[in-house]
Amino acid sequence: MGIFSAQFAYAVALIVAASLCLIEANQTAIGIEIGSRGQREFDYFNLALQWPGTFCQRTRYCCSSNACCRGANSPTVFTIHGLWPDYNDGTWPACCTQKSFDEKEISTLHDALEKYWPSLSCGRPSSCHEKHGTCSSPVARDEYSYFLTTLNVYFKYNVTKVLNEAGYVPSNTEKYPLGGIVSAIQNAFRTTPKLLCKKGALEELHLCFYKDFKPRDCAIGSTSPNGRLYSSSSCPDYVSIPAYASMGNLDPGTTHKAVQLFAPLGIEPKATLSE
């Protein structure tokens, strides 16, 4: 039953991802700029980072591609969710060409991508390029350039290191002032991050850049009275950065258990990529 479920889940993921661009092409009524080929050029880049300690708490099923299920080898740093071309009005282009993802084109980046841009689900990894990477021209003109550029920006603007040095380390008991986290990023990178939370826990942190990758503020979807940037699901004044994640065992179909994932941060990337 476990093997059948894994195959079924993967098949569903393929179908959903394959039809994602077609579905989004018709969803203009909700104010999201997505659709057909020939969309206008984007205005800026949004580097979306996710905190595995929060995200992996959703995990209810394990598969070989899910980094939440790697036990001691699970990610211990903010990982890449994506590098998204966005518009200043808060919308974005998607699926700008018909070019399909080709894993062979980024084979030399495989180890770095597995560590710093892992899948935290059982979805289809190629969709991040087909949906967003194809809209990154003229800055990133091909698949390899898109992924290498994303890694370079991620390493240069090391959010994990900045927060660790400011004292914001994973904890099951501590809650940290949201303003302090924002200030730490502002002082380090001269930009205001966008924060997304889930049940009081920091889940995503977004950094935005001009096309030459100089920092800038993200487009504001909504703000609090004091001007902080929030998502539609706002963060409280004090947030947690979970040090544990409730995950499934490494073997699909087995019972679930809680495992310790995260220790104080400060890991430096081993991959040598130019800044």
Description:
The chain has helices at 2-24, 52-55, 110-116, 127-131, 143-156, 159-165, 178-189; strands at 44-50, 79-86, 176-177, 194-198, 201-209, 215-216, 222-223, 229-230, 238-239, 244-248, 256-260. The radius of gyration is 18 Å and the shape is globular. It has 275 residues and is an alpha+beta fold. It contains seven helices and eleven strands. The strands form four sheets. Strands 1, 2, 4, 5 and 6 form a five-stranded antiparallel sheet that branches. It has a two-stranded antiparallel ribbon with strand order 3-9. A two-stranded antiparallel ribbon has the order 7-8. The protein has one domain: Ribonuclease Rh, Chain A (Alpha-Beta Complex).
Give a quick precis of the structure.
By secondary structure, the chain is α+β, with helices and mostly antiparallel strands.
Order of secondary-structure elements: HEHEHHHHEHEEEEEEEE
At the fourth CATH level, what is the homologous superfamily? Ribonuclease T2-like
Question: Sheet bearing the most strands, described?
Answer: 5 strands, antiparallel
Range of strand content: 15-25%
GO molecular function: hydrolase activity; ribonuclease T2 activity; RNA binding
Family: Belongs to the RNase T2 family.
Keywords: Disulfide bond, Endonuclease, Glycoprotein, Hydrolase, Lyase, Nuclease, Signal
InterPro entries: Ribonuclease_T2_eukaryotic, RNase_T2-like, RNase_T2-like_sf, RNase_T2_His_AS_1
Layout of secondary structure:
Layout: H1 2-24, E1 44-50, H2 52-55, E2 79-86, H3 110-116, H4 127-131, H5 143-156, H6 159-165, E3 176-177, H7 178-189, E4 194-198, E5 201-209, E6 215-216, E7 222-223, E8 229-230, E9 238-239, E10 244-248, E11 256-260
Antiparallel strand pairs: 1-2, 1-5, 3-9, 4-5, 5-6, 7-8, 10-11
